[in-house]
Specification:
The complex is a heterodimer of chains A (about 260) and B (about 325). With about 260 residues, chain A is mostly helical. Chain A has 11 helices and no strands. Chain B folds into 2 domains: about 220 residues, P-loop containing nucleotide triphosphate hydrolases (Rossmann fold, 3-Layer(aba) Sandwich); about 70 residues, 2-Layer Sandwich (Alpha-Beta Plaits), CATH 3.30.70.260. A 6-stranded mixed sheet of chain B has the order 6-7-8-3-9-10, sandwiched between helices. In chain B, strands 2-1-4-5 form a 4-stranded antiparallel sheet. In chain B, strand 1 and strand 2 form a beta hairpin. The chains are: A mainly alpha (about 260), B alpha/beta (about 325). The structure holds adenosine-5'-triphosphate and magnesium ion.
Chain lengths: ~260, ~325
C-alpha cells in the first residue's frame, strides 16, 4: 500500500513535469476550452433558449463536463504511446506497484482537469456566468466535477490499454464522447429532442452530472438535488467498473 | 540443477494464436557469464526475454532467474533483474536525469539517493552533457545508452539486453560493446539477444542459436564453428542473375545446400582437397561466369547458415 502511494506519486509527477514542455498540451488544456466557451456563448447562445437568466449560467457546467471528456483523450493517447514505445514494459519489469502507472496517470489528470476548470470558470465569469447559490454548494459542485473527471479518466485509461494505435484511440474516443456530450443537457435543453434521443439524454451520465452541477451552482429550474445523488452514484459506478478492468489490462499488456 | 546457474530454463513454450513463438526451450546460464541468444527476425528471442523478465507468462515449462521462479516469485524477481528491451524505453518528454531518477524511485529509492545514482550512471554512459535535455532530443545511440543506464539503476545481478545495438552505426555499436564488456567484467550475468554474429562472438561466453522458437545449437563460438567441421566455399559471380545456375551446379558438392548471401554463393564443405577444382569444373560446365572463388575457415555466419539453411542477419521483415 505504501508502495502504491509512493509509486503513484512518482508517475503523477512524471506526467505533470512534461506539461510545461509540451506547447500542444498547454493549448489543449487552455486555449481549446476557452474557444469552445466563446463559440457556444456567441455563436449558438443567442439561438438557444433556456430558463436560465443568462446562457452562460446554463453553459458553463456543460462545457466543463465536455472538457473533462475531451481531456481524457490525452490520457488514452499517452498510455497508448507508453505501451507502443515499450515504456509500459519497463514499468512492468520494475518492482513497483501494479496499479501505480494508471493511478499516477489519472491522478495527474485531476490536476489538469482542475486547471482547465479554473480557466473555464474565469472565462465564464468574464462573459456573464455567476454562482447563484451558497459558497458551500458552489464548492460541492467543483468537487463533484473533480470526482466525476477522475472516474472518467479511468475509462480513458482502459481505452488506452486496449486500442492498437493512436488513430483507433482517437476514433473510438470520438465515437464514445460525441454522443455522450451532445445528446445530453450540456449545451441545450433536451425538451426539443426527438423522443428517442430524449430518452437517451435522460439516462446519460453527462446529463445527470451537468444537471447536478446546475443545481449546486444555480438552483436551476427543473433540476433537483436528486441529480447530485445520481451523479455521485454514476461516479462511483464508473470508478468501480473501469479502474479494475484498466489495471487488469495493464497487467497483461504487451508491446505491439 | 546446477548450483550457480543464474538463469535456468526448462521446456518453456509460448504461443500467440497459431504462432509457436517458443517451442520448448531449455537453457542454462552460469552466474557471471554472458549468453548470446542468436537468431533471425521472429525466432522468439524477445518472447524468451519477456518470459524471463516476468512480462509474459509461459504456456508450459518453468524458468528460474537468480533462483526465483519467473511466474510464482515474479514480484521478488523484479527487484533483481534489469531489462533493456528491444526498443529504447525512455520517456522522451523527460530529461536523461529525470528518466533515471524516476526509475530509481520506482525501485524504491528516496529522491536524493535516486538522483545521486542517476548522476553516476549518466557520467558512466557519457551522457552528463545531455543530462538536462529532454530525451527526445537524443540521438539513437544516446537513447540506447540511456535505456541501458536505466536497466542498471538497481545494480541488478542479472541483466537482459534485447538487441542492444540494433540500429546503431558501427562506431556507436563498438562504443556500446565496450560499455557492456566493462559491465560483465564486474560479475553481472548477462543474457543478450542479437542478430549480429560478430556481436555474439565478441561479447558472449556461450552462444545459443534459436530459430522458429527452438534452440538449434548451443556452445562457445569455437565449438559451434567446429560443428560444421571443414570450410566454406565462397563464389563471387560475374553477374548476380546467374545465382540460380550456380546453386544448381554446386548442389551436392559440399555437405550443406548452396545458398546466396550478400551476393555470394556459399557452400559448407567437409573435405578441402579437390573442392576448388571440382567447383570450377562444375561452374564452367554450367556456363556460370566466376569473378572470385575462395575456400576459407568458417565464421559464425556460416554456422548459422549450415544450421538453419538461411542467413542470420536477415533484413528486418
Ligand atoms: N504479442 C504478440 N502477439 C502475436 N504474435 C506475437 C506477439 N509477440 C510475438 N509474436 C510472434 O512470435 C514470434 C516470435 O517473436 P519474437 O518477437 O519473440 O521474435 P524475435 O526473435 O525477437 O524477432 P526480432 O529479431 O524481429 O525482434 C513472431 O512470429 C511474432 O510474430
Ligand atoms: Mg525481438
Amino acid at each position: 500500500m505504501r508502495r502504491l502511494v509512493s509509486d503513484t506519486l512518482v508517475i503523477a509527477e512524471r506526467n505533470l513535469v512534461r506539461l510545461p514542455r509540451s506547447p500542444d498540451l498547454l493549448v489543449a488544456f487552455t486555449i481549446q476550452p476557452i474557444m469552445f466557451v466563446l463559440l457556444f456563448r456567441y455563436v449558438f447562445g443567442g439561438a438557444i433558449h433556456t430558463t436560465y437568466g443568462n446562457y452562460a449560467d446554463f453553459l458553463i457546467p456543460g462545457i466543463i463536463v465536455q472538457n473533462i471528456a475531451f481531456g481524457g483523450f490525452v490520457t488514452a493517447l499517452g498510455l497508448e504511446e507508453d505501451l507502443r514505445k515499450g515504456l509500459i514494459d519497463r514499468f512492468r519489469s520494475l518492482p513497483m506497484s501494479r496499479a501505480a502507472v494508471l493511478a499516477g496517470r489519472t491522478l495527474a489528470d485531476i490536476v489538469t482537469n482542475t486547471f482547465s476548470m479554473l480557466v473555464l470558470l474565469v472565462t465564464g465569469l468574464i462573459i456573464g456566468f455567476a454562482f447563484n447559490t451558497t459558497v458551500l454548494e458552489a464548492i460541492a459542485g467543483v468537487l463533484l466535477l473533480i470526482a466525476f473527471g477522475y472516474a472518467f479518466s479511468w475509462v480513458f485509461a482502459f481505452l488506452g490499454m486496449i486500442v492498437s494505435s493512436p488513430e483507433s484511440a482517437n476514433s473510438l474516443g470520438f465515437i464514445a464522447v460525441f454522443p455522450l456530450t451532445f445528446i445530453s443537457s450540456a449545451f441545450v435543453p433536451t425538451q426539443t429532442f426527438p423522443a428517442v434521443l430524449r430518452g437517451f439524454a435522460k439516462v446519460n451520465p453527462f446529463t445527470i452530472v451537468v444537471n447536478a452541477v446546475r443545481y449546486l451552482w444555480e438552483h436551476g429550474q427543473g433540476v433537483g438535488v436528486s441529480n447530485v445523488w445520481f451523479a455521485l452514484a454514476w461516479t462511483a459506478g464508473i470508478l468501480i467498473v473501469f479502474a479494475p478492468i484498466a489495471v487488469w489490462r495493464y497487467r497483461r499488456a504487451a508491446v505491439r | 540443477m546446477g548450483y550457480g546457474a543464474a538463469i535456468q530454463v526448462r521446456g518453456i513454450a509460448k504461443s500467440f494464436g497459431e504462432v509457436r513463438a517458443l517451442d520448448g526451450v531449455d537453457l542454462e546460464v552460469p552466474a557471471g557469464t554472458v549468453l548470446g541468444l542468436l537468431g533471425p527476425n521472429g525466432a522468439g528471442k524477445t518472447t524468451l526475454v519477456r518470459v524471463l523478465t516476468t512480462l509474459l507468462a509461459p504456456d508450459a515449462g518453468s524458468a528460474q532467474v537468480s533462483g526465483l521462479d519467473v511466474v510464482t516469485d515474479a514480484k521478488e524477481l523484479r527487484a533483481r533483474i534489469g531489462l533493456a528491451g528491444q526498443y529504447a524505453a525512455v520517456d522522451e518528454n523527460l530529461t536523461g536525469l529525470e528518466n533515471l531518477t524516476m526509475v530509481g524511485r520506482l525501485y524504491g529509492s528516496g529522491r536524493s539517493a535516486a538522483k545521486r545514482r542517476a548522476g553516476e550512471l549518466l557520467e558512466r554512459f557519457d551522457l552528463l552533457d545531455a543530462a538536462g535535455r529532454p530525451a527526445k532530443t537524443y540521438s539513437g545511440g544516446m537513447r540506447r545508452r540511456l535505456d541501458l543506464a536505466a536497466s542498471l539503476v538497481a545494480e541488478p545481478p542479472v541483466l537482459f539486453l534485447d538487441e542492444p545495438t540494433t540500429g546503431l552505426d558501427p562506431r556507436a555499436r563498438r562504443g556500446l560493446w565496450e560499455v557492456i564488456e566493462q559491465l560483465v567484467s564486474g560479475g553481472t550475468t548477462l543474457l543478450l539477444t542479437t542478430q549480429y554474429l560478430e556481436e555474439a562472438d565478441r561479447l558472449a561466453d556461450t552462444i545459443a542459436v534459436i530459430d522458429h522458437g527452438r534452440l538449434i545449437a548451443e556452445g562457445t563460438a569455437d565449438q559451434l564453428k567446429a560443428r560444421i567441421g571443414g570450410s566454406v566455399l565462397e563464389v563471387t559471380l560475374e553477374s548476380p542473375e546467374s545465382a540460380p545456375a550456380a546453386i544448381a551446379a554446386l548442389d551436392g558438392l559440399g555437405d550443406g545446400e548452396p545458398v546466396v548471401e550478400d551476393g555470394l554463393v556459399k557452400v559448407a564443405v567437409a573435405e578441402r582437397s579437390g573442392t576448388i577444382v571440382a567447383a570450377v569444373q562444375r561452374l564452367s560446365a554450367a556456363g556460370v561466369g566466376v569473378d572470385d572463388l575462395v575456400l576459407r575457415r568458417p565464421t559464425l555466419d556460416d554456422v548459422f547458415l549450415a544450421l538453419t539453411g538461411h542467413a542470420a542477419e536477415a533484413e528486418p521483415a
